[in-house]
Structures are given as C-alpha cells and as structure tokens.
Amino acid sequence: MNEDESDADAGLRDRQTTGEDRVRMAARQLSQPRTANWIAAEAEWSHGPTKRALERLVEDGILHRDDGGTHTTYYPDYRRQAMQESMRLRDGDHTVEELTDRLADMKARIRGWQDEFDVETPNQLRGTIADEALDADEEDRRREIAGKWDHLQRRIEIVGFAVREWDFLAPTTEPAEVTGHFLNAD
Predict the structure, then answer these.
(1) Quick check: 66 and 79 in contact, CB under 8 A?
(2) Residue 72 burial (CB < 10 Å; 0-12/13-18/19+)?
(3) Which helix (H) or strand (E) holds 23?
(4) What are the C-alpha distances in Å from 176 to residues 61, 87, 89, 171, 179?
(5) Rounded to an integer, what distance in angstroms lies between the CA atom of residue 106 and that of residue 102?
(6) In angstroms, rounded to a whole number, what is the distance separating the alpha carbons of residues 8 and 5?
(7) Which of 7, 25, 42, 176 has the largest CB neighbor count within 10 A?
(8) Would you place residue 28 in the very low, low, confident or very high pLDDT band (cuts 50, 70, 90)?
(9) pLDDT above 70: percentage of residues in the chain
C-alpha cells in the first residue's frame, strides 16, 4: 500500500467513525492495561474526550479502571472478551472438528518452540536474549516468537473453551429462564 492509499484509508475511517467509536475499538482490542493517553493516540482523538469515553465504558462494565499504579490504566473485561470470541467461533463457519485441529496445530507450534529453544514459556525464551550471545536478527526473531507464543496461549484458551462448551454455546431461539426455578432444578 502506498502513502496515498494509506491516507485515503485513514480519511475514510475518520469519515465513517466518530472519535468515540475509535476509542471503543481501541479499548476492546487491548491485550494489556493502557493509559488514556495511549488509547487517545491509538484512536487519534484528544485526551479529554477519550477519557470521558473510557469512563462511560467503565460505567457500562466493558472496561475496568486501575488507579493503583503511577498512572490510571484501562483494560477490558477479559472474561467477556473470551466469551464473545468463543460465541463467534461457535456461530462461525467452523466445525468443532476444525477447531480441534486448530488447537492441535497451535499446541504443536508451541512444542516446536519449546524444543528448538529448550524453554517452557515465552518469558524464558525472552530471557535467552540476555543469556546468550546473539546477533540482532536472532534477538528480534526470539522476541517476535515470544510475542506469537503469548498470543497462541490466549487463543488456545479461547478455542479450547469453545470446543469444550460447543453445545452450551449453540445459538438458541428459546429465551433463557430467569426465574428462581432456574437455579433450583427439581
């Protein structure tokens, strides 16, 4: 993509989404807690309105706020994200067998990295950068693999949940029973 196409795509996105829309999109894709300034930069919107949008997302239960550090950070409800992604997998074009194959492929990739680097976790792989005399390309490669490994571990949890709960996650046309009888099965 050349620079003109990139500018055109950015212009199209700005015309089709509001600043609050962009904040919501950025916030929902967080994989770690981030400050309002970081989210504002991602959303290409000013700090004040971004902070107000984030507070609304906290009030709606979509985000959590952590005031315990030096800076207030925001992060999504990871359980909600995992459940929504599991439902998307269940409702999508994949069969339970295809998802099971994906699980096996992801686990095989991780086992391959464990064998190749003689480590058990992504952080242990990151630690090899300090332990070994490596050139810059190999350091970058290991850092990239560690990031992919972290991502695969999260995907394994979600895909595994979708497979385990395949029947429960099935779309239904019947409303859920919300009365007290729901908990007291006789």
Answers:
(1) no
(2) middle
(3) helix 19-28
(4) 22, 16, 21, 11, 9
(5) 6
(6) 5
(7) 42
(8) confident
(9) 84
